[in-house]
Amino acid sequence: MSAYSNLPYSHNALKVFEAVARWMSFTRAADELNVTQSAVSRQIKQLEQELSVSLLIRKHRSIELTEQGRDLYQVLSNNFHQLDSLIAQWKAPAKKRIVIKSALSYATRVLMPNVAMLNEKYPEHEIVIIPSIEEDPQLEAEDCDLLIINTRQKDRYLGKPGVTFLRAEYMAPVYAELLSDKSIQIEDVLRLPHLHATLDHQDWKLWIANADLQGKKLGRDTVFYSLDLALSACLSGQGVTVTDLLLVLPELKRKFLKCPEAIALQHSDWHYYCYQKNYTPIANEILQWLVSQTESEVAQLKQLCSKFSWSTDKVDL
């Protein structure tokens, strides 16, 4: 027994009927199918006989669909559209991909806002951004066009073939106006809730040690194990977090985030590098864009330091 025992033997008759019903014309259907009008009429009659239903009402100069004809046309039309789209996908040339693997925070806060620009600039390519959670990846094992690394082991990458230094980090505490409607002084940082992106609290420990603050740390600690989560908590007024100011440049410019008064920027132990594995013209262009983007962001941070009197004595800016 056939799996589809109710379907007509000739599937071509269904195609002919769909064309007739779509055009509501034997003549136009025959032109589309490149057959004679009599062949079309014969196929429809054979289909009606096999199904034991009337599909068309034939008039002197026109035709109409019966109720069964309308139902059959609807089903055929939907399924033919789906089949046509499926087969078109098979025939369409696959887009070439530009694969950028990146440290998570950089991918979220630098690459993501620029995806629309990259898509517009490279319409024939599919942009693939892969977040990297591996702290110090093996360059030879990476399968991507560009790899953006955030590392404390600069000697592992600096001067290596294909590796370009992007920038250092510019660290300072930040808070949202929801936390305090008054300007926070640098000494206040010790008593406010501290938000951490790592279990070892390393960014806070390093910043407090280099800031020469007097007094005991009183603020409660909360660890989010993710800079993006720590920044989200900070933006909602949950506390103060130490972060790389270049990653929150838009929030600083709009004053969604602020730095305490009389702050001094510091470098962390971390640096950003870009490894170019594939030397294609587009990979070359994107690397140059990353370098230019970084230079622009550093210039903007320098302007903010001047505007808000943030000290840059301890950093190269």
Q: State the helicity in percent bands.
A: 40-55%
Task: Give the low-pLDDT segments.
Answer: none
> What is the highest CATH level, the class of the largest domain?
Alpha Beta
Helix-strand category: alpha/beta
Radius of gyration (CA) equals: 33 Å
The major pleated sheet works out as: 5 strands, mixed
Count of domains: 3
> How many strand units?
12
Strand order of the largest sheet: 4-3-5-12-6
In round numbers, the mean pLDDT is: 90
- The CATH architecture of the largest domain would be 3-Layer(aba) Sandwich
Strand content: 15-25%
What is the string of helix and strand elements?
A: HHHEEHEHHEEEEEHEHEHEEH
Assign an overall shape: elongated
Keywords: DNA-binding, Transcription, Transcription regulation
Pfam families: HTH_1, LysR_substrate
GO molecular function: DNA-binding transcription factor activity; sequence-specific DNA binding
InterPro entries: LysR-type_TF_proteobact-type (IPR058163), LysR_HTH_N (IPR000847), LysR_subst-bd (IPR005119), WH-like_DNA-bd_sf (IPR036388), WH_DNA-bd_sf (IPR036390)
Brief overview, please?
The protein is an alpha/beta fold. It contains ten helices and twelve strands. The protein has helices at 11-23, 26-33, 37-51, 67-91, 104-111, 115-121, 202-211, 227-235, 249-253, 281-308; strands at 56-58, 63-65, 96-103, 125-132, 146-151, 163-168, 171-176, 194-196, 221-223, 240-244, 257-258, 271-276.
